[in-house]
Amino acid sequence: MKLASKIAGNTFIQVIARIISGGIGVVIVGILTRYLGSEQFGYYTTIFAYLFFFASFADLGLYLIIVSDLNKQEKRSDFFASLFLLRILTALGILLFANFLAYLLPYNQEIKYGIKIASIATFFSLLIQVQSAYFQVNLKTKIISIAEVAGKVLLLLFTFLIVYNRLGFSYVIWSVSVALFIQFIISYLNISEIRRISVDYIKKIWIYSLSLWRKIFDKVWPIALSQIFVLIYFKMDTIFLSLLRPQDVAQQEVGIYGAAYKVLEVLIAFVPLFMGVSIPVLSRFWKEKDMSGFQNMYQRIFDSLSFVTLPMVAGGMVLAGDIISLLAPGFTDSDKILMILMLATGVIFFTHLPTYTIIVLDRQKDMLKIYSLAAALALILYISLIPFYSYWAAAWITVLVESIVFVFTYKKVTQDIMYHLKMNIFWKALVSSMFMGISLYFLRLNVFIEIVLGSIFYFIFMYAVKGISQDMIMILFRRKL
Fold first, then answer.
1. Is residue 64 part of a domain?
2. Given this model, what pLDDT does residue 145 score?
């Protein structure tokens, strides 16, 4: 089986798994919003937003380093085991600091206790991220996909039990931690490089690890710093919303914003799957100085993103009210916030292409200025506007800053590879998405039926404007190329 077919197969497996786990996740959120209400769901959102921000400090860009560099190593096992050990140490250190700082913030005791419990979930989530990189590089995404779905199914089961028995808020947080632990174990048992880690093995590779970590740090500090800046403008909106608004309404507003934001998080979880299996191919073309192959792959990724992203944004905006009615009934303004965040979702999808490509080109340091300016702008806007305009400011600032980052990162990549993307598929997908959105606007059916009909309308419109090419269909569905 050729490389393109393996990539298509692995991407297909991951997409199916993510659709299943994403669907289960949406069901879980729907249950929790009804069970917890907007205020306690605000607690839930604040806890994980807070820890997600600190988790970025522990990330160190190791996921991207493994994806881009693992296959270049002579000692693959030692290289991966060493980075896995580094992830463990950094995660423990950062999460301990996050828990200490939480007690100095004006959160109530329920949130502070929840942060302590959720730190376990965050720890295993960070380890799972490294495991995912390993499986993507080795094109064995079935294992991590099975683990992900199993974890979500268990979490759904735990959620049903918690709601049925009317257990407290802390049990909700504990259920997430236990589910992620089980997901981690399933993956752990299928990676020989991790299973080799023992006291004797750690002693054996310690000197190697210290030397490697210094080299890794020299390479990843721009990535790590960039990710911190990204998290400032991507996730600090929720944290500032929880801290800068009057405390008698803050958590309720976080819950309203968080219900819409959960949809964004579910959707953007899909794009790294495709990028994760595509980037090694881009990296190989760049290493071999095959610019024709590199530019062709770069264009194909953009066309695929256009094909999927634009109808998703149009459909999400039109169906926002129906989605929130299912996900979080009674959460006033969540539907309007979702319409705004769908724009941000689309921008984030497209931004993945230039940002991942920058890693392949090893130009991370050049991007620090862009990310730092974006973070500074976001901080100024959050602090200035959120106290007065609440979640409306948070949503529109997200759209603005993400758009600025896309423009500058795309411009940077275009200069480096001397290639301008062809927009043929993009414009056809945009026109087809607009017609699809108009069609859905006049329908008043069940939201699931509307999603199916919208997909059919989109394909019909794309076919009519000749946006579905034989080449794209072959890439997506053929088993042998």
1. yes
2. 81
DSSP 276-316: HHHHHHHHHHHHTT-HHHHHHHHHHHHHHHHHHHHHHHHHH
345-348: long-range contacts, CB 8 A cutoff, minimum separation 24 = 345/263, 345/264, 345/267, 345/268, 345/312, 345/313, 345/316, 346/309, 346/310, 346/312, 346/313, 347/399, 347/402, 347/403, 347/406, 348/264, 348/268, 348/271, 348/402
The model's confidence at residue 194, banded by pLDDT at 50, 70 and 90, is low
Q: 469 lies in a domain? A: no
| Count of structural domains within the chain | 1
Sign of the CA dihedral running 275, 276, 280, 281: negative
Q: CA–CA separation, 428 vs 282, rounded Å?
A: 25
Give Cα 71 distance to the centre of its chain: 24
Report the C-alpha gap between 114 and 117 in whole angstroms. Answer: 5
User: What is the average pLDDT value for the chain, to the nearest integer?
Assistant: 83
Give 303-346 pLDDT, tens digit per residue. 989 998 999 999 999 999 999 998 888 888 999 999 999 999 99
Task: Identify the DSSP state of 198.
Answer: -
Residue at 463 is within a domain: no
Cβ pair 242, 46 in contact under 8 A:
yes
Computed on alpha carbons and rounded to an integer, the radius of gyration of the chain in Å comes to 22
What is the pTM (predicted TM-score) of this model? 0.79
For residue 259, what are its two tokens? 């219900």
Residue 112's CB is within 10 A of a number of other CB atoms, namely 15
Residues 79/68, Cβ–Cβ less than 8 Å: no
pLDDT class for 479, splitting at 50, 70, 90?
very low
DSSP result, 116-165: HHHHHHHHHHHHHHHHHHHHHHTT-HHHHHHHHHHHHHHHHHHHHHHHHT
CB crowding 202-227: b at 16 or more within 10 Å, else e: eeebeeebeebbeebeebbebbbbbb
434 inside domain: no
CA–CA dist 14, 278 (Å, integer): 13
**CB of 266 closer than 8 Å to CB of 253:** no
What percentage of the chain carries pLDDT values higher than 90?
Answer: 32
Cα 409 to Cα 357: distance, rounded to the nearest angstrom? 10
Are 49 and 343 in contact, with CB atoms under 8 Å apart? no
Say how far apart CA 125 and CA 151 lie, in whole Å. Answer: 11
Residue 477 CB-half CA count within 13 A: 7
Contact between residue 50 and residue 101 where contact means Cβ atoms under 8 Å apart: no
Instruction: Copy the structure tokens of residue 266.
Output: 């579910």
The interaxial angle of helices 291-318 and 447-464, nearest 10 deg, is 140
122: containing domain: 3-422
